[in-house]
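Fold this sequence, please.
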Amino acid sequence: MSLYKRLRILFCAALLLALTCSPSFSGLQFLNERKAYVGEEFILSPDPASIPTDAVIEWSLSSNVRSIMLRSGGFECAFTPVDTSPVEVSATLRDKTSGASMGTVRKTLIPSEFEVEISVVPEPVRIWNPIDRTEVDADELIAGHPVRVRAELKPSTEEKYTFVWTVDAATAVLSQDAQDLFIRRSVTGESELSVKAFNAGGVLMGSGEKVISVTLSQSDLAELARSKQAWQDWQRAQSLWKEKKYEEAFELARAAQAAAPRDSEITGGAKSMASHYDRYIRAENIRRKAVEQRARRLYDDALKSYRVAQVIWPTPEGNQLIRETEKESDAERVRQQKAKWLMDTASAYDQEGLFEEALDYYTQSLAVVSSDAVEKRVERIKNRVALIAEADQYAAEGAALEKKGLLEDAITLYSASLKSNPDRALRQHLQELQSVVSRRQKQAARLYDEGMKLERKGNDSEALQKYRESQRMWESIGTRDRIDELEQTVKAPSAPVRGPEDVGLGTQADAAHLVRQGDTLYLQRRLEEAAVFYRKALAMSPSNEPLRAWIKSLEAILRKQKAAKSANDLFLKGNALYREGKIKEAAAKYREGLAIHPNAEVESFLRKQGLDVEAGKGKAAQ
């Protein structure tokens, strides 16, 4: 325990006995019985009613005080304690005429030091919240930003006093304004501050210390700024799209997606906009083709092009173009042409998979001109719609079973769906699911065999672990029976039971789900937890090169954060050695920290102390 702390304990005990009085003249009373503080003027004022009219007071004080002054004709005594030592005061009452003593009152005062409270004065800094999409006041201190700290005496006093600050080597002092100190750290970490208060005569009135944490780095701010800009660009892109400025909107959306690749709302919206933009471009190209056809008087072909373009990307202008072209056609061929135009429109809807609209237009065409070919198309589409509805029902039921983990039943329903409606995406998913099931079954069988071998050797605990992993890979009644039997006599292993996701056995949909979980953690700045989900997703989808590159960049960020923390720990150890006067050992710790991560303030501190920093800088650069 330090001498200072021991004195504080003695001081607190002495406060219980402060202002104790051992008078030999009980008639003399004092008006003020308040607490005395080091460095603050203390005034003893006797009660006039307790002093005879023909008496004067003779004062006597111990030597550990300053600025002793008598006031009110000697009836008041003012002085300033210089430390926490007891102050002995005696007041002798004497006859004004003869000088004879009428009695003496003695007091022992035990002064206290002021408490110095250090607090951080908030300086509002607005940062972007990527989850709520709003700007909020930062509740963390930011590296590279000035931080204002304030010292205050407790309790307050009217005495004049000044503060003297001390900071650690990794903290830069920018300026001091009365009781406020402005500091800055270039990197995240903890700053150690201490302050002493002195009165105008140089007497130490009290001291305090505080550790403040700087947790938000400049790279964090830059990333949040990019996230904000990306969101604003995406909002602007949506506004431009509503204004039908499709090309500007599409380019701005692509920029927003590139700036915030982990923001699922922007990424999903940009992909949807890209799909719509592709349809818009296709429709425009077809309309330009129609303009050329009209110029060559190929009205039938032009109308077909306009209607296809209108199906792909309907616009009021497109309808107007169709009406204008219709007026240009030969009146003699109106009825035949109208039937053909209706059939062409229906065919365009048919090609786009919009079968209800196609049936409507085919029915209108039949109402104008009867046609066996059109009737056969109507019958074909009706059968096709029925099969698609049946296939969709099978696929939906299969998807529900897949979510419940009933993969074999899901495969059966997916196969039935493909028979009714061949779908390339569903077929690819089915093949992928069948491959995953096969691999999981083989992995489960291998683990079961390993468990059987271990059980034969008497390693029941390890065998139980293998059976449990086998059951997680693929459920089996035989494996369940072995687990139930062993759990009766064997203590459960403490090691975690690995599942399919831990060995990369999953579909592309499983991998995408893991990526979304990682993205949620990433937006919450829980980077290490996010990296675990990303790696599991990559194990299921090793050909996903963008994900592989993202994991590589995330691991680089984690390594940099780890290096900065390790360096900060070494700087703190150097600070402790420096305070103990171990300059060389402290400098060695500072250089060791610089070898891990650079710090401009520490380098500046070493140079000011005349110590070499080049060795540390060289290692850090490597």
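Residues 1-26, 616-622 have pLDDT under 50 and may be disordered. The chain has 19 helices and 17 strands.
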